[in-house]
Each structure stands twice: as C-alpha cells, then as structure tokens.
Amino acid sequence: MGSAAQLTKVKILGEETIFISHGLFLGQVAVDLLQNVKADKAAATKFALVTDTNLAPTYLPAFERSFADAKARIGDPASKDELFSYQIPPGESSKSRDTVGAIHDWLAQNKCQRDTIVIALGGGVVGDMVGFAAATYMRGVPVVQIPTTLLSMVDSSIGGKTAIDTPYGKNLVGAFWQPKRVYIDLKFLQTLPRREVINGMAEVIKTAAIWDAAEFAALEANADQVLAYLSTDRVASEPDAEIAAILKRIVLGSARIKADVVSQDEKEGGLRNLLNFGHSIGHAMEAILAPQILHGECVAIGMVKEAELSRYLGILPPAAVARIVKCLGSYGLPVSLNDKVVRRRSANRKLPVDELISIMAVDKKNAGGKKRIVLLSAIGTCYEPKATAVIDRDIRVILSPAVQVHPRAPVPNSVTCTPPGSKSISNRALVLAALGAGKCRITNLLHSDDTQVMLSALTQLGAASFAWEDNGRVLVVDGKGGAMKACSEHLYLGNAGTASRFLTTVAALAHPSDVKSTTLTGNARMKERPIGPLVESLRSNGIDVTFKERPGSLPVQVAANGGFAGGEINLAATISSQFVSSLLMCAPYAKSPVTLRLVGGKPVSQAYINMTITMMATFGVHVQRSTKEPNTYHIPAQSYKNPAEYEVESDASSATYPLAIAAITGKTCTIPNIGASSLQGDARFAVDVLRPMGCRVEQSERSTTVTGPAPGTLMPLASIDMEPMTDAFLTACVLAAVASPGGVTKITGIANQRVKECDRITAMSSQLAKFGVKCHEHDDGIDVLGKGLGIQAPTSGIFCWDDHRVAMSFSVLALVAPGPVTIEEKECTAKTWPGWWDAMSQEFQVELEGIEPAAPLTNGTNAVPRNDKSVFLTGMRGAGKTTAGHWAGLALGWPFVDLDQELERVHNEKVDVMVRTHGWEEFRRRETALLKQVMKEKSNGHVFACGGGVVEVEENRQALINHKNNGGIVLWIHRSTRNIVDYLNIDKTRPAYVDDIEGVYNRRKPWYDLVSNYIFYGTNVEFYGSKTAMETAEREKFATLLRSVSLRTPHSFERINKKQRSFFVSLTLPLVDQEAAPMIRDACSGSDVVELRVDLLKDPNEKAPGLPGIDFVIEQTSLLRAAINIPILFTLRTVSQGGKFPDKAVEEAKALYHTAFRLGCEFVDLEMSWPEDVLTELSESKGTSRILASHHSWIGMSWSDGSWMTYYNRALQFGDVIKLVGTARDSEENDALEGFRRWANKANPSTPLIAINMGTLGQLSRIRNPVLTPVSHPALPFKAAPGQLSAREIRQAMTLIGETQAKQFLIFGSPVGHSRSPALHNTLFADVGLPHSYSAHDTANAADLRDIIRRPEFGGASVTIPLKLDVIPLLDGLSSSAKILRAVNTIVPTDGQLIGHNTDWKGITTALKQFGAPAAEHSASALVVGGGGTSRAAIYALHMMEFTPIYMVGRNAQKLQSVADDFPVEYNIKVLSSVDEIKKIGVSPMAAVGTIPADLPIDEKLKGLLKTALSLKAPEKTDDAEGGEIRTRVLLEMAYKPRVTELMDLATEAGWTSVPGLEALTAQGVEQFALWTGIVPDYAAARAAVLGEQQ
Ligand SMILES: NC(=O)c1ccc[n+]([C@@H]2O[C@H](COP(=O)([O-])OP(=O)(O)OC[C@H]3O[C@@H](n4cnc5c(N)ncnc54)[C@H](O)[C@@H]3O)[C@@H](O)[C@H]2O)c1
Ligand SMILES: [Zn+2]
Predict the structure, then answer these.
(1) 949 near 922, Cβ under 8 Å?
(2) 886 pLDDT exceeds 90?
(3) Is the pTM of this model over 0.85?
(4) Which SS3 state, helix, strand or coil, does residue 489 take?
(5) Contact in structure between 619 and 641 (CB atoms under 8 Å)
(6) Where is the Shikimate dehydrogenase substrate binding N-terminal domain (predicted)?
(7) pLDDT tens per residue, range 831-877
(8) For residue 131, which atom of ligand 1 is closest to its CA?
C-alpha cells in the first residue's frame, strides 16, 4: 500500500490531532485511544461509541475485537476500560433534538462521567449530532471523530463545528467543540456509495478553489481516474497503489487546508468564511432540494453560480469559471439546476429566485443587512480574506433564468471589447501547435466544450503537453513535432464536429504503441454526422480506417501509420471544408509531398480553407495553390515551427454585437484583434453592413473601430447579400429595425439560417414584431421595415429558442427601446459568449435585472401544446379502420381520408381491378407513392386510414415509424384474429389474399406493432349484447383514447388531483368478460380510477403462473374499458410485493408496461424494486400515461426514522404519483405515517403521495389518505390487500371521525311534491356512504331561497320550474353551459361561492347515448320538437353530440326561429314549417328530443309535420360487410307524465326507439350528484330509485 498506508499527522490549533492513513481504524485507533487519548491513565475509562445502523454491521464487531485486543496488549492499565455502543438511524433526520436527547439519556444510564470519551463513527450526520451531544453532556465531555464519508473526512469532522437541525433551520442549534482526535481512515471509502463519494468531492474541489491552485490542477488531472475507480467493485479488492495515493492526496490536501484555515480563525471571524465558497447559494438551494439532492451536489451548483457572480462583477476571468465548471462536471457533479439528473431526482421542484434570495438572507455570514458571498479572483485565490458584501440585484441577475435590459444606458463614449476567441481558429491553433515543435503561448483561446475535447484528445495521443498560465488566460503548448502514439482508450469527442474531422487524420499520423490503431467516437448525434469522403481519401492513401457502427460516420478505427503515403490525394469537398482542412494540416507529415485535389464540384466554404492555409503559414508551412488546376494544392513535406506567441483572433460573429452597440447608441467601440486581414467572413460586417448604414468605420490590419451616427439615424440597406457572413444577419436585422422610418432593409443569401438552433428568419420576424417592427420573410432572406426610434417596448419577453444569437442581438436592440426588454433564457449566450451579460454590464454600463418569468414559455406561447400532427390508422382490413377514421375525424374536427378510396379516386380504378390488371407490385408502388405524398403535404390536421397491406413494404413502415418518432400518432386498429378472419371471408369488394388470411395476419402483426405508438382494440358485439350498445360504447372508448393521446383533453390526473378525496378500486378478478361487466360497473361506482391487477388475470394460455400473454392483456384491458369508461390503473404486482407476477420476469414486465402505455392507460403502477435502468427506460417512454411509483413493505419499516426515504426518493424520480404501503404493527405507526405525509406534501406538493398502512391496525391511515386511496368493493370476490376498505366505508368513517359534516340538499320549484329527485339523491347518498339528506321545498318565489342557500348546512340544490331563471340573480356565478342555456337547474357551492349549473343537457345526451343514438356517424341530423325552455337544452345537447343540422318543428315557427337565432351559426339550426320542406330533407334525422307538454293532445298541424319528419327514410349502414341494416333512431321524450306520451307513440309507430323522460331525469340527476359530491355514483341504483323500483 506504500504511502497511503503510512500514517500522516496534521496539525490543527497547534496540535497534531488529525491522523490520516489507509487501514488506521482497525490498526492504530484502539491503542491510541487507550494509551494517548484517555486523560487519566490509571482510571477506568468509558468509551461511548455512537454510529448509525448502516455502518454498525460492517464495522462495529471488528472494532470491538480490535479494542479487546489492544486492551489485552496494553495489559493492566487498560483492563478496566470499557467500550459500549449506540446505533441511530442513518440520515439527516437523526440530526434532531430527539436523537441528542436519547444519547444524553443513554450516557446517563451508563453512568458516564466527565472523563467518558465519546466516539462518533460515521458521516457528517453522526459527527455533528454526536459532537453536539458531547459538547452539552455535563457541560462537555471529550469527543473523538472517526469520519466515514469523504465529506466528513475533509470537512465536517475537522474544525469543531457541531450542530443539530430544528424545524426552523438546519444547523440552527450547536456549539464549537474541538475533537480530541480525528482519525481519517481512507479504507472507509471502499464501502461508501459512489454518489456519496462524489458528494464529498464537491467540498474537496471547493477547498482547492479558494486556497490552492496547484491542488486544483491536480484534481483536474485526476478526475478520470477517480471516476473510473468508483465504477469498480471497491469492496472486493483494495485500491491499487496509484489510486490509493491519489485518494490520500485528495483527502490530505483538503484536510490540511481546512486545518490551516481553522487554526487561523477558529470561531469564524472572517477567514473561515472562505470555506463557505459555493455555500451561500448552495445552501439556499439545498433548503429547497434536500433530501433528494445532497449537500455537495447543491454546493457544486452554488460554486458555479458564485463563480459566475465573481465574473459578473469583473473579478474572475471567464477562463477560471470555465475551469471550475469543467472540473466539477468531470467528477460527475451537477453544474446547473437544469441538470437532467437533478431535475429528475427532485421531481422538477421549482426554485423561485425570490425564495432563494430570502433563504440567503438568513446566513450566518451576513452582516448589516447585506449578503456576504465568497468571491474568487483566481483559481486558488479569494478576492478578500473573507466573504464580500454583494447587493441583491447582482445576485438576482445570476440566479434568474431571464434578464431585463434597461434602455438608455450610460454607454461610455469609447469602449474596447475583446470577444471570446474564434472557435475555428482555436481548433486550428491547437492542432498546429501540437503538431509543431517547441513551445507556443496561445492567448484568447476559446474555452468551450469543443476546444476542451480537442485538448483532451491531443493529450491522449501524446501530441503535446499543455499548461495554463496567467489564470487561464494563456495556454502553453509544448508540441512534440508530430511524434504521437496510438492510444487504447477511445477518443471521446462528444458532439464536437470540428475535432472529429481534424483528429481522424491526426490519428493516422500516430505511431503504433501497445495498440496499432486509435478509435474515435462521440455521442449519438455525432454518430450521424458524415465523415465518409475524408475516410475515402485516407483509405486511398493507404490508411486502414474501419467504420465501427454505421458506414460513413463515427466511431471509426484509424490505423496508426506514422503518417500517410502522400503524393496525389483526391477529396470530395462538397460536404464540409473541414475535410479539406484536416488533410491540409496533416499533409506536411506525409511521407512524400502532397498534391491535394478537391473533386466533385465547387468546394464549400472556401473561406475556411483559406483560413487553414494562412494559419499553416504562420506555423511555418507554405501551401501552394496550383495555378494550372482548379482547387488543387501542393503541400511540402516538412514540420511546423511553432511561433513563440499566437493570439487567437476573437470570434467575428460575436464581435458584431459590441460593434452594433456602438452603431445603435452613437458611441465608439473598438475590437482590438479583428481587422482587415481577418480570416473570418463575419469580419466584413463593419465595412459591408455598418459603414453603408451610416457608421464611421476605421479598420487596420488587426483592429476595427466603429462609431455610430446619432441614435435613430441609421440608414436602411436597400439590398444586401449576407451569404459571406450569414451568422451576422440577426445583428443586421435589429439595426435595420431602427433604421430611418419607412426604410426597408432587404437581406438575402441566408437560407442556411432557417436550420440553425431554430429557424432564425422566422424567429427574427416574430420577435421583432413585439417591437412593432414589420418583416417579410423569404426562403433565403428577410425584409425589415425600419421604424427609427419609434419602436415599441414589447409587452412580453423575447423568446430565444435557446439560440445565443437571438438573445444577443435583441439585447442590443433593447438599448434603444422605449422601456425595459426581457430576454428569456439568458444562459443560452454561453454557447459562444458566456460572459456576454458581464460585458454588457461592466464595459457598456448597461443596467440589467434578473427576471423570473411567471411560467416558462414554450414555442413563444404559454398554451399547452396540442398534438396537431396527422393521425394514421393502421391495421388489418376488417379491424374497423374506416369506422374509427370517421370517429377520429369527428373527435378531432379534421377531415378523414381513407387511403384506399383515395387511391381509387386518384387512379380512377377500383382497387381489386387495379390489382388484377397491373399486378400487386404496381399496386404497392402506387400505394407507397400516395402515402409519401400525404405525409409530405398533409402532415398536420388530417386523419388517414392506411390500407391493411402498407406495412408489407419496408419504405412504408419506415415512413410510419418516422411519423411516430416525430411526435405523430400512428394508431393500430386491432381486434381479435377470429373477428377479422370472419369479416374477410365475407367481404368480396377487395382483392383476395394470396395466402391464407391467418398467415397474412400473423405476418403483418409484428409490423403493425412496430410502426404504431398506440393501440385501439375493438371489442365484439357479443360482449355488449347488441350492436347499438357496441357502436355507442366503442365510439366513446375510441374518443377517450384519441382525445387523450392527442392532448385534446386534460389528463384525468389533473381533475383527480384537485379533488379533496379520490379513490381507485382494485379489481381482483381473474377475467374481464361479459358476465363480469355488470359487477365491474357496480364495483367502480364511487371510485375515480379502476385498477386492473394484471397479475391476477388468468390467461388460459399463460406462460407461467401470473404471467399473462400480451395479446390476452390487450384484450382484457380493452374489455375493461368497454365495461366502464373511467381511467385505468394498470398494475403488475410482483410476488415479492404481494402479487402474482414473477419477480424475475423483467423482460416480460417491460413488454407489458409498454403495452399499457400504448393502450393509453391513464395510470401505470411501477414498482420501485425494478432495476433502475428499467425504470428509466419505462419512465421515458410512458407517452400520455402517468406513473404511479409504488413500494410495499411487510417488514414494519418505521415512518419516523427515515427508512422510507430511500423508496420515497426513488419514487420521486420516476413517479407522477407515489404510493408507499407499509405495515402497521401498532396504531402509533399511523401517526408517524401522518407526520411523513405532512412532510412529503409540503416538500413536494406537485407529486401526490398515497401513503397507507396495511392490516386492520392500518385502516385509519386509509381513512386519512386523501388521494387515490385503494379501495375494495363488496361486489368483488376478495380484497386486494389486508385491511382494505370500500369507498363507502371510508366515507362513513370520515363522518364518524368528524371530517365530513352532514349537509342539506333541496329541490326548489313548484310543484315539487311528486318529484323523484329526493328518492334518487337520498338513495345515492346512502349508497356512497355520505351523511347528507335531500328534500323538496315547494315555492314559486325565488326570494324564499335567498337565505336558505346561504346557510352553513346548505349542500346544494336542484332548481326546477318556475325558478330556473329567477334564481340566477341570487348566485355568485354560472357555469358555461348555464350561461349558454340561460337557465340554472343545479346550485353547487364551490370554494365559498354559489355557482349555477345546468345538467339538463347532460341528461339528454346520456339518455340518447344509452339507447343508441350516437351510433349515428358523420353528418347525421337531429330533430327538436317544441321551442320552450327545454328546447334550448335539447339543442345544446344535440350539438355537443356533433349532430348537424339540428332541425326544429313546433306549433309556432316564429317562436322557434327566435330560439334558433339565439345560438351561434355553427349549431346549424333549421326551422321546418311545412310538410314539403320536411320532405326535401330526404334522409331521416337520427335523434329527436320532445320538449312539448304532454298533458294536452298534440295540435293537428304539428302532428302532420311530426308524422312526416319521423317517417323519413332512415339511412342504411353501408360500410358494414353485412350491409342493409336500418340504423337505430332514438326519440327522447322530456315530459315525465304520462309515462308513454302521444309523441312517443308517433315515434314508435314510425320505427323509432322511444325513450321516456324519467331516463333523462336519472341521467341529469346523476350528473348533479357528481357535481355536488365529486362522486360518480352507481347508475343502476339511481335509475331504480327514479323509476320507483328500489332495489
Ligand atoms: N460540521 C461541519 O463543519 C459540517 C460541514 C459540512 C457538512 N456538515 C454536515 O454533514 C452532514 C452530511 O454528512 P455526510 O455527507 O457525511 O452524510 P451522512 O452522514 O448522512 O452519510 C451519508 C450516508 O452514507 C452512509 N455511510 C457513511 N459512511 C459510510 C461508509 N463508509 N460506507 C457505507 N456507507 C456509509 C451513512 O449511513 C449515510 O446513509 C450534514 O448534516 C451537514 O450539515 C457539517
Ligand atoms: Zn459544505
């Protein structure tokens, strides 16, 4: 073990009390304690060791043995000494008063005196808490710290700060109590979880950052090794000597510095503040994000923010910030709150800037009302020897996602500004200097991911050594003159395109080492970028290059040839000039001089080729351009000679912004390192754009100075081709916007800007519009209409599409806006100029303010994005695609196109004829062409049904897959094989199948599965009993799926979340079938969601017990949806979690979960015991499903000691809802659970928690659980879990414990004596277990209601004739339907207000649907009889059911017309007043509603009209293979008495189904009940009560 095992002692406060080594704990600690730490050698001493339950099993027994051994060795003086121990639960919750109290009591019980030595064995939690217990027990007993986490080794154990947390703050109560010893044993790190080690690294990096630049550089260098080590099995084997030494250096380095600082300032007078770097902001974040995000992780992000603050204040150079970010990142620490893992682990918790700032106000460092923050001036150096006062405004800018730019800044008359180095030049300079011989000091190098990748790769190849000087301002490259070695480690290039192209050739120059080739790879995006032509050229020149994955892209394996042959090389340079530059730069090292010939057409980006050639000359190699041949270059064979200094020119695109500031404000700005000799295209911006606009431009070879004209006097540019400087067009646009009013600037040549970070042309025109500036877009350009200084201040922020150039250009325009301008996503400038806002604020003196927009913008608007991509239906013929297509068209309001019919139309030939005359091949070809065409031309807003055979063609499959991958919906219309086969055997209108039908089906099935992202599975008529019932239910089922996956309706989760109580019923059935359906409906009454326990289903063909097949599950889920249309929770409960699904069947489980997502199950239960990668994969592909992350425990885990935290934290990462189910051993566990629930609901209000205890003792927790409580139902065969209650039982219990108060409900109107409503509602209240009562109140005077409805016990009311209008003035508001119907039939108290609703229309739709009316498809009409108050409800209802037109007949046509006129035109209402008029309609309406009084005979004339209307010919079903069936027409009578009316008789005679009014009454009553209680009751019970047939 060499040096790591050697004991090192560190001095603190004048004494060497910190011991560090590997193996110390079981080696020297016991002896040292007994011989040196104990005060009185003669007296018997008690050693009281406290540790946590994580550590005790691993470490305590061995230590007890080593203590006993030591005693034996020392002999007599130690023989009476005792070691005893105490264990606490792990985790921050143990840093509490309760735990300290328990330890005090334990010490007292053990008769511990002043001389007792307390030992804290553990991480910071144990150390802090035990330290505090020791500091306070008997006014202080000695303490020894044995830190076991990296964080505690380098930080918390050293320095004597001890503390506990209180509800009012972390570490709020504590003491300074120096330990007698700190034993740091590096061996503990072997068992410390990876995330905890990384967590500790944050403090290590912090310590180096404030104090020791060399230490920091060492950390940078060791990151890869440390991370690699953490991925090994550390427990199994000891670390090798090298890594052991690195770890020791890391710990020792930090511990020394901390000891040093503490020694100079023990009680934190100032210097010790410095250790708080990153903590001011980090702590504030931790206060919100703990415990999901660890201390070190928050501090890492805090350090980045505080470093950015230092940079913003002009104290820290940008390069230093970049190094800090890079270093933290390279140890796997998060560097931004937007970090994906941080977002996931914290369940997207919001961190409002105001809240962060207010938390920062309670920092012990603050003084005099000002916040104090540790600022750095360099890596390893702090700005002051203490924290520095910083104003809130500056902190706010750093923390805010958006920035507000204030106009009329006092911009200095003359500013010199050096933008960051050019990326292209930086990359070339690195390659050239590395290939060259000798030292080259490069300045103004761009610090970016791209250059970082280049540096690392060149280092890996041994091409050069690199060192930073002057705080990162200078990079010293020591080039090895082309001597490189192939390396076994892959060169990982991320998405750095330039690096990949340059390095592919560089790798060929390497010499073989222990490996003979080098592999270059990158991220997924990189693996799509082309490199083929370059590789071709290299191959042709004798280099062996292999594509490892996809031909033409990385990863590539390049043979180490020590150079290539040279001579003539041809290269296709039409894709990228980087191929050319790559060969050019390496060509001098070829074995003979190279002639490079660019072939295949005009090379792209000649400017970049010239840049390379010019830079090569600076490094001593002169390329000759051939005078005889076009695009041909001669490169001599020689080495580069490095210049001593090389300054990277600033990025010319970036330079356009400071120059534009001068132009727009009339001031002067100089860019000191870009001039006429610049190699960059955008360098021409000053001369070609600014000068003609009226600026004074002075340019030397190496610098540019621009002075703007008086503000508002810039001139427009009649026409400018910006092809040579496309990136600068955005800057030109904002200047053109303030050019003289009316002047148009026409910019062309910028077509490529439509496919950058965003479509920049559209972006500019949409955002300039916010300033009142008009633009015209062209394919390759934009016209901007100048407004001078007459531009407006935008009323909303500037949306940047995360595009740095959009953000920077609008920040320039903001300087002359009439009011402040908010730039959203300010951090996007980091891509090329992280310090842009700093420069704005410091150099240009612009006033900036941090802003947090209320809601993050998406695509520039706040609306929830609906999915408007076209829908494609696929599946076998006979599965019902055409019918589904019509439904889809109606549900989405889009045209529906059957592609088979469209094909027939286009070619004017029937499909079967087409196949017969031209053959299958030609038919398929035409089909493919049509599919491609509609995908291109009608990619939005259409529904298409594809022919069953489209999936036979690979090209079509790919097209459908692309559509789905781009966010479109491809819906597989699926049904049982038998159904399809039956259908196809009947249908003769389509070409016969060549193979047997089942064979075809089995071949296509996997393809349908492959191309689709959602499945609709049709249920047969046998299940429903009648065709009418089937069509109605299937259409609903389909619409539910489609609306939800196309994001038309809000997810049911949102509605459920708003309810005070919600339930899901667990179906414990073996089979969902026709027989079970009524029981299922019964069991679901009163629940919000139904849980399908898939593991309990009995698949007759199951592969293993509890393991149903996919097809079976698809069918069962669909049958459940057919039985009852409420949200489904799809659950696979594994054996170990109390179910039947095999624990090991991971792959099968994954397939089933994916199926659930594709079936559109609203909720899917995911057990947190599945492997993490499975959870990640599933949660990323959940589609519109919400995940219920669950964990069940039978071992009686406690809710109070943090045991559940691991599961909770995991669930928070993957779940939209969390479900934790424990076991109650005693009733106190229910109280503990409530404490946990309170904590969780406060900490993560947007992720609802279902927390319950199983067993009879746990029933109270079920009664108290507010959201989605799992319930049973008496109708079900057995309960899903012990102690499960029914929803009714829970509600009854809530009444008993006083959480529900009995309310009074009434019906107002006259006469109401015979109303069936009291029977209905009282039955339902009893049925669901609510204590309310409902009674009749007969009155015709609205004034009588005034007081009653304001009484506290008033629960709600029904309102009937004659009060439906009179009641309105008494209420506080109306629902949308009540507003349209201008009548109220229901009063609902909502949030302290009385809201009027109208459920009459709902009663009509429900009754009509139940009797089959909506089976009417597209373009069916309906009829309303009468023009009274109820007719309005009827019209509204029929419109909601998508009937059109809606006809009206009645006695008085004029009165009908006035009702009709009152509705919007799209209701398409037509009043029919004569028999002739009616006859002209031709086709019968499919639904009718009678609203005329039934106590008198029908007027003769009206009767004549009715007879005609009702006997119009009903349409036949045509798209059904059986054909010829008359469709069901339904008339609903709204009068209740007599039970069968004259109108109903007329309808029945004409072949209609007549429905009595009590059906509608039931339906609207059920709706009322749901409005009052939030409960959907049992419909059958309601119906029975209304009809007087009480069950
Ligand atoms: N006093 C100070 O100056 C100071 C400084 C920094 C942090 N702190 C405090 O330290 C606490 C955080 O300490 P921490 O990060 O060490 O966390 P911790 O003490 O909670 O330990 C982290 C986890 O690792 C486990 N563990 C510890 N050592 C292990 C090992 N060798 N092998 C396997 N598992 C092991 C623990 O049981 C625990 O579950 C916070 O309360 C913080 O306020 C104090
Ligand atoms: Zn810390």
Answers:
(1) no
(2) no
(3) no
(4) coil
(5) yes
(6) 1307-1387
(7) 889 889 999 999 999 999 998 876 544 333 333 456 678 899 999 88
(8) 1
| Sequence-ordered alpha helix ranges (H) in 867-910 | 881-892, 899-907
Sign of the dihedral defined by the CA atoms of residues 612, 617, 621, 627, in that order: positive
599-629 in b/e burial notation, b at 16+ Cβ within 10 A?
eeeebbbebbbebbbebbeebbbebeeeeee
In what side-by-side order are the strands of the sheet with 943-945? 896-898, 943-945, 871-874, 969-974, 1014-1017
Q: How far apart are CA 373 and CA 321, in angstroms?
A: 16
Does ligand 1 come within 6 angstroms of the Cβ of 174?
Answer: no
Residues identified as active-site: 268, 283, 828, 1192, 1219
Among 1048, 1039, 1041, which residue's Cα sits nearest to residue 865?
1048
Are 1435 and 1469 a contacting pair, CB within 8 Å? yes
What is the DSSP code string of 1358-1413?
Answer: EE-TT-TTTTGGGSSEE-HHHHHHT--SEEEEETTEEEEE--HHHHHHHHHHHTTG
Cα 1396 from chain centroid? 38
Q: Could you tell me the pLDDT band of residue 985, with boundaries at 50, 70 and 90?
A: low
DSSP 60-124: HHHHHHHHHHHHHHH-GGGTT-EEEEEEE-SSGGGSSHHHHHHHHHHHHHTT--TT-EEEEEESH
Token pair 């007078």 in the structure block, residue: 269
Cβ of 278 less than 6 Å from ligand 1: no
Q: Please write down the HEC assignment for all residues of 612-659.
A: HHHHHHHCCCCCEECCCCCCEEEECCCCCECCCEEECCECHHHHHHHH
Expressed in angstroms and rounded, the spacing between residue 89 Cα and the centre of ligand 1 is: 12
d(C-alpha 83, C-alpha 504), whole Å: 64
Residue of 22, 26, 54 to test ligand 1 pocket, by largest number of atoms within 8 Å of CB: 54
Cβ atoms of 558 and 547 within 8 Å: the answer is no
What b/e string do you get for 230-240 counting C-beta neighbours within 10 Å, with b at 16 or more? beeebeeeebe
Å from CA of 127 to ligand 2 middle: 14
What is the DSSP code string of 827-850? GGGGGT-TTHHHHHHHTS---EEE
- Tokens 């689709």 sit on residue: 1012
Average pLDDT, the chain: 89
Look-up: residue for tokens 């021409």?
684
- Bridge partners of residue 1334, in order along the sequence: 1305
Structure token digits, residue 1093:
């326990």
Show the CA angle centred on residue 1503, arms to residues 1502 and 1509, nearest 5°: 90
3-state SS record for 418-457: CCCECHHHHHHHHHHHHHCEEEEEEECCCCCHHHHHHHHH
DSSP SS3 for 407: coil
Q: Is the CB of 155 under 6 A from ligand 1?
A: yes
